[in-house]
UniProtKB/TrEMBL annotation:
PANTHER family: ACT DOMAIN-CONTAINING PROTEIN ACR4-RELATED, ACT DOMAIN-CONTAINING PROTEIN ACR8
Sequence ranges assigned to domain ACT in this UniProt record: 118-198, 297-371
Keywords: Repeat
Function per UniProt: Binds amino acids.
Name of the protein described by the UniProt record: ACT domain-containing protein ACR
Domain of life: Eukaryota
Organism from which the protein derives: Lactuca virosa
Gene Ontology MF annotations: amino acid binding
Pfam families per UniProt: ACT (PF01842), ACT_6 (PF13740)
Coiled coil: none
Amino acid sequence: MMQMDRRQCLDEYEKLLVRMNTPRVLTDNASCLNATRVMIDSARKDEILLEAVQVLTDLNLSIKKGYVSSDGRWNMDVFHVTDLDGNKLTDDNIINCIEQSLETIHNTRSKPIDGMTVLELTGTDRVGLLSEVFAVLSDLKCDVVESKVWTHNGRIASLIYLKDIDSGYQIEDSNKIDTIKGRLRNVLKDRDYARKSDLKMENSPLVSVQSCLDKGYSVLNIQSKDRPKLLFDVVCTLTDMKYVVFHATINTTEKGAHLEFFIKHMDGTPISSEAEKERVILCLSAAIERRASEGVRLELRKADKPGLLAEVMRIFRENALYIIRAEISTTMGTALNMFYVTDAIGNRVDSEVIDSVRQRIGMVNLRVKEPSHQKIEIQEQNTSLGGAVLVSLGSLLRRNLYNFGLIKSYS
């Protein structure tokens, strides 16, 4: 009898622990006209803020405002979110997905890459390089399942997940892997005209660090142009640098974003030296600038088939489109790809060129998507001149891409 009572007590204790460690999530679509409010109440733990922001980012949501507060062992985070087009969320399925994803962040793990071969590539960037890379993979009967591509300061980095077309599984033939690596090395070493950008970054971020000695915090202020994944990149950088965010305010408008963080080291001490302040400023400025895409966003949705990606890349190259960032994936036999493109010298692509590309690929399959802040700038400038050509070697994969070799493969 006593054993049964003890077992029941233990069960109740375990249930209490689950309730304490499971974030409580509430979505509110009534109190804000232009955004959906997401409130997260959770027990404090390392990286909880990063995990929450990553969930919202992975769901392709833009965080327009936010408030982060830590009181002892508890966190209260409030985010005002929209879709990438700046619209309030109205789909109940998406809202339910947000709640379910956030409520399970304490159990989240990185997505497995079992069953795929992974290539990491870096090299000097140039127009048409991606077209050649994917043409080689298509020729060698490699099916690209997912890929991330970034360019920055004349360099390119890419992470490519692929399978063998014939078998449908990861590539285990060491000779074939060597052939892939050899041919891609030849493509990456072809640097007859390495692309160099003469454009200067306009609206560079302003980052400052001040001391709040009476409270024991370091106060971090950031002013920059708003863009998708801005908060994720900042929080990820702070987490990687072993800082803890205790309080934060995020506010974005059509003119830009203002972020304020109250931070400490993991041991509870604030930033103590000018050299450390300078390091924080440099690292955050670089993280913000790396993903500052200024190209036209093209979204491809089409039934997947062998060679589809190589075909799309060839059409882009023939129309002198320069890809500054790409996110490539396949879901249930459908290719879901996003490209940010400029012309060959980094300026905004002429609308006639975009229309020509869409006609060849399919007007229904390839759509033009422009963030709301870019639409406003175009209206104000009444010109086709583009902004800076600079994008991410960034934080989507967090620590994974900091130490590239020329090509690495994992099977």
